[in-house]
Structure formats: C-alpha cells, structure tokens
C-alpha cells in the first residue's frame, strides 16, 4: 500500500494525496478565494465608476473636448518627445504580452486534456520555470516600489520617476508575470516547480499550505487593487501620453489580464479527462468573454487620441483569442487529436492580418494624429481639426514656442472665416480663442460691440440663476477659458526656443539604437512621406506681432494692435458668432449651438457686448434646447422673468417660431420649477396668439414640439400647478386649431352630407325629449293615483315607492342621455338635495359618470367648469382662465374633432377627467362644510332632520375621502395641499384625513391610501414651511 504524503514530516508531499487524507476541499478552496476576490472587487469598481452607463456611447468616449484638453496638457516647452515615446513603447510591450497570454489561455485546457507538458504555460505568462526566482523578483520589485513611495511621502516632493516609469512598468509591462507569480504562490498548482522551505517542506504539504496561501493572497489583493486604482484615478491624469484608453475599458482590461493566471491555476488542478463538461464550460465561458471584448473594441475603439495602433493591437489580441477558443472547442467536441489542433492553429497569422485590416478602417474614423497643435489645425479631418482648435483654446501658451504663435492664430482665423458646414463646433471654439487674442487692445478702450441703439438693446445684468440648480461642475481649464470682465492684464515674456528637429546625420553604434528608441518622432513613424514644411513656424518676426498675457493663472496669445483694430476684429467675431449660431440651429448641431450661445452669453455678462432683444431671445432659447440641465434651468428662469417684466414682448415669440419651438423643449426638463416657468410663458404666448385672428397654429408649433407638450402633460400629472398650466396650454392649442378649422369652407357635397346628418341628430333629439316627457308624465300619473288610494298610515311606505319610481325613471332615461351626450337637469332646492343628487351621480369607486368623462363624449364640444387655478404671478395679470371653445351648429359642418392633431380627443377626455375629479372633490367639500354648519334647531321635530343631515354629511365625507385616495393621475394630493382654499383645507385636515387613516378597505386600497397620505403630508409640510 502506498504511503500518503500529505504532511511535512514525509519525504515529499504530493497534492494529489490530499483527497485521500481528507483535505480534498483544500485543493480548490484557495483558487475559489482568488476567483471571489477577482469578481467581487472588479464588479465593485465598475459599479463605483458607473461604467455601465457609457459602455457603448461612442460620442462620449471620443469627446473632442476631452481629447483637445489632453493634447493641450501634453504640450511642453521642450519639443523633445523622449519621455512620451518611452511610455508609449512600454504600453506597446504590455499589449504584446496580452496578445500572447490571451491567445494561449484556451490552449491550456486542450493541452491538459491531451496530456501535453505545460512548460509553455510558464513562458506565455512571462515567468521562468523556477518559482523561487519569480517570487524573489516580485519581492524585490515590491520593495523598490514601496521604498520610493515612502521616500516621496517623507520628502514631500513629486517624483516623476514613479509616475512616468515605475507605475507603468508595474501595472502595464510586468503586471501579468507579477500577478501570475502571486497566484501560483497562493494556489500551489500541480505540475510546477515550487519553493522548498528549510526541512524539505513545500506548498504541497497540508500543514504548510496556509503560509503560502496567505502570502500569495495578500500580494494578489494588493497588486490587483493597486492596478485598478492606478487605472481609475492616476493614469487618466497623465500629461505625457499621446493616447489613453477609456477608464471603463481599463477596469475591464485589468480584470481580463488577471483572469488568465487564475484560469491557468484552475485548469492545472482540474482532471479534464474525468470532467470533460467542466473543461468545455470553462472554454465556452472564456470564448464569450473575449468575444464580448472584441465586439466592444471594434464598436467603440476605446483608445482615444492617437489610438489607431493601440486599438488595432487590442483587436488582433481578442480576435486571436477568439480563434484559439474556437479551435479548443473543436478539439474538445471532436476527436481530441493534438495533431488536428496544430493544423487548425496554422491559419492564425491570417486571422491577425484580417483583424488588423478590418479594424484599421474603423479606427481611422476616431484617430487623431500625434502632431503639434499647428499641424492639427492644418489636418483635413474634421475630428483632428476640431481637437486642434480645442487644444489651441485650452493650452497654456507659455508652453508653446513664440515662433508658432502667428501660424496658430492665422489658422484659427481661417477656420472662422471659411469652414465646411460640418465644422461648426470647430468654428465655435475658434471664436472663443480669437476673442482672447484681441482682448488686450479691446479692453484698453473700454468700449462695447453689438447693438448701439439704447432703446432696442437689452440692459446688462438680466441673467438670473436658480439656486436650486446646484453649483457649476466645470473643470479648472473650462473656468480659465470663460469670457469675463477683465480688470488687470499681466504681460509675460514668451518662450523663444525653436522647434526641436532630429539631427541630420545618424549616430553610430549603440547610440543609434538608443536614439531610435527615445528620439524618433511619432510623425516619422506614422508617415515618412509627409511633405509639409515647417519653415513658417520658425519665423522670428512672429515674436514682434504677438505677445503673451496672463489671465486667471493661464497664459494667452494676444495680438499687438491698436484699439480701433481690436474693436473692428471683435465686431467681426460677433457677426461670425451670429452666423455660426444661426447655422448650428438650422442644422441641429447641439454642440455648436451650446458652445456659441454660451460664448455670446458670457460676452454679454462681461458687459462687452450689447445684445438686441431678438438676439438675446435667440441666445437664451438656444441654450434651452441644449443638453446642459443647469444652464437650461437658468435660461428658462431668465426668459420667465423677462416675459413677466415685459422686457421681451410676446409678439417677438410669434414672429420667430424657431425660438418658440426651442423654448418648448424645456417642458422635457427634469425639474418641476423649470417646466412650470416654461408652461407659464407658453400660456401667455398662445393666449396672445389666440387674440390675433391671423395666427396659424401649424406655422407656430412643429410636430416635435407637439409631442413634447403631450409627453409633459402625461408626465406631470401628479403636480397640480404644473398640470393645470399644461392643461390650459392644451386647451389654448385646441381652441386655436378649432378656430383654424372654422375658417375653412366645406365643399357643397360635404355641406349637404353634414346638413343631412344634422337633421338626423335633430330628429333624434326631438324624439328623445318626447320619450323623456312621456315617461315623466306616466311616472307622475302613477304616483298621484297611488297617493289617492293610500291612507295616512301608509304614506311613509308609499313615499319610498315614489322614490323608487323616480330612480327607475332616471334609469330608463339614462341610455338616451348617454347617447346624446347630455346631463340630466335637476333643480337644487336646498343643500341637502344638492348633496344627495351629487352623491347619486358618483359611482362606488369615486369616479364621475361616463357621460362627461368617457372618450366617446369628446366628439361634442367639451363644456366643463374649470377647476380653481393657482394664483398667477404678481406681475402677470393678463393670464386669463380658459375653457374649451363651444362649437355651434354652423361650425360643426367644417370642424372635424376626430381629426385634431394638436390636442387629440383622448387628450381632451383626459383633461375633462382630471378637472372633473377636482371639481367633484371641491363640490363635495363645500357641500359637506355647508351641511356641518347648517342649523337644525328651527324644526319642530329636530331629531329626524338632524339624523338625515348627519347621514348626508357622513356620506359626503366618505365620498370625498374615497375620491381623494382613488383618483388616478389627477394630482389630487397636490391639489389638496396647494389648490384648496384655506378654509376647505382646514376642513379636509379635520374631517376627511382622519377617515383615510381609519378606512377599512382591501389591502391594495390600503397601500394606495397610505401612499397618497405620504405624498399629501409631504406637500402639506412643504406648503406650510413656504
């Protein structure tokens, strides 16, 4: 019998004997802990970084502003690019190691099944066979890194050595060998050389495994967490690299690079022959992972900047891994012949070439050449030119040679004057950069440009901010490029170093190799046939035409010119800005719209630009149509105040429909206050439009704006003041469209058809009235005959029969009333009869009769009583109540209510339902309040009337509570808190709210009631605090 070797006192421990010793679980537990740490911490980083929100947003990943800022930050006084290229080559080495590791990982399983030696696994993981050498190298490198960090903290100095060399080497170049060494140390896989402790014990001894596992797991966690932190927070701030990967993708890549050694450890301890299903599942799971990464890389091209080459390398890496995974799956599912596997891997180089060629075409769409700013401005690509313009705006000009000033400014002026229609964002950023170019001469004369007529201009300081919108989230660079009032300029001497050029004569020996690795320019690597000359950038005369000034800790290139020339240049910039704003609005370029409008707004706020009312309206409405929620809130508030103060006349909106439709887009804002202000202004505009008989609604509102209004009506059903204003807006649109249809003259054929149809309706109406009168007369005869035959003792019982007959009469006439869309007329003799009639027409679920709320009744002109509105603003007395227009018999011949487009019959029915519910609640509360205050002492027999009054009061309160808690999408809770008069609100709090707390309803109704009570209490507290 073979002796089990599980403990250190034996000659040589064997891991395969652990199961026989009762420690079979220990063989897989360490690897399971590694898997758990890898998955949980990686997903946690993705969740904290909110990576899932922008995985496939190509526009957000390749944001020209972020790329331009990166180019601006990478500019240095010295034109030598040694450091940048050394880091570039280190990243290429790291990606090459990924190429080998990812391609070989699926083959580990196949070699395990085929029984082939796994020595190649060590080589592809960039390790050496001796585990001792690997561990010692890892410890030495870790001690070096720790010592440098301790020295940095002790000396309190920035260490470029750590940021530019040690960190990239640790977390890029050597990451795979380091993480695989720590994984092997902590999991002790079979088939590898292990460290031998003094006494002959290894990690394969059960009583020594804990030591190796603790050391390996600790190092694994530290290295894995440090790599993720470096990719998330340190590397994005680097200023010396010409390309960088998206942060979300960097997190995924750290997890993917860590997955390779973990999977190799798991396969090493797996009996793939005995468990082929597990081997197949591992291979299939790895294939899906790399297939997803390949699709992601091809779709988004996650390397931004000069990232064509890195994106191609990553595409080749994942396509190679996908192909080897498919070969491994074929090997596991087919004959499992190692020779056939080798034959299937033969076309792998063709796969690399094909993947590179296919990805090259898409990578060029997002590629920005690694060129200086002036060369980027000369590029034909719109993306490259835009990135160069943004870099010229954000760059600190002290880092540029003085000889490049004239070329940059000349090219920016050329972009502003002559650009293609798809270069509008480029022109917008160039306008801002050129304003700072003329700021020195312009500020000396302390003048203004723009509208010179004082009566037509908008006064300064008419820009209002909403404090609830929050603080600005702009970066330091964006704040430095903001147009502001300049009080002081500081002249700075420019840097006169010429552009660095490589020597013409090659160096000899080993110096030639060093020169190639460190000093060769990226431009020569990308295109050796470029014929562009740099002679113009070396002109020394440029230093006399341009200078440097310092504003807000940033240096700007300014032109040496007279004050009159500066004013003329700024006037030209203003005209060009208006042209760019008009073109961007016509083309729907939101980026150019926002950039140009904000530039003009900042210019106006600095009191250097005088804007007319029309131009200011154009600027503000353009900002409203952009995607910056904070700016939209401020612009909507400003327009709201200007309209209420009569600074912007209402006719100005109707004369410029584009501005009106831009402003309607504010109804889609997330803040209720912004939607409220927008709805108020729109009601004023369309109220004035209704007073003008020449108004054409189809020219005022576009289909997109119409859809925005409908969406806002359905979205803000729970906020009373917003809902009422949106309902008023829809009613005004309805009336305008009806008025527009009444102006049309129907054809003779249609007129005859409608006349005959009206005759039929009149016949039905007369027939209905005759049937109703006959039924009422018959009921009266029956009642009188019954009363004459009864004695006094049976009068009370016969009165109950009379009431039942009246109810039957109403039931018989109800179908005809519903058919004709009419409501029964009842004479309200007293408050008691009024409440009794109203309660009889409220169903058990608290809703109105279908005769007034159903969509079928909307084909007749709606006629409802408008619910109480919130008080209008103090300076807006012209906002009047509105109701649906009444359509007479003549207008019905031309008006087709079923073909209305701006306010459909379904929306009309919804508005009727909402207002009807509020009106019912208001009438119930008023009637109940009157019943409570009605005296009963003047009656001879006060007991019976008091009981009837109490019953009616109790029924009214119950109906009011049920209506308040069950009316859907009518803003009842907000209506109670904000729309009821103070006396009715106090009555509701005292008598109705307690009934909702003690109501005995089903479980679902209870939940709804409690939800309503919570919303009502929240609104009430907010009202009373205000």
From TrEMBL:
The chain crosses the membrane at residues 23-43, 132-154, 161-179, 211-230, 251-267, 273-295, 315-334. It comes from the Eukaryota. The keyword Membrane applies. Keywords: Membrane, Transmembrane, Transmembrane helix. This is Uncharacterized protein.
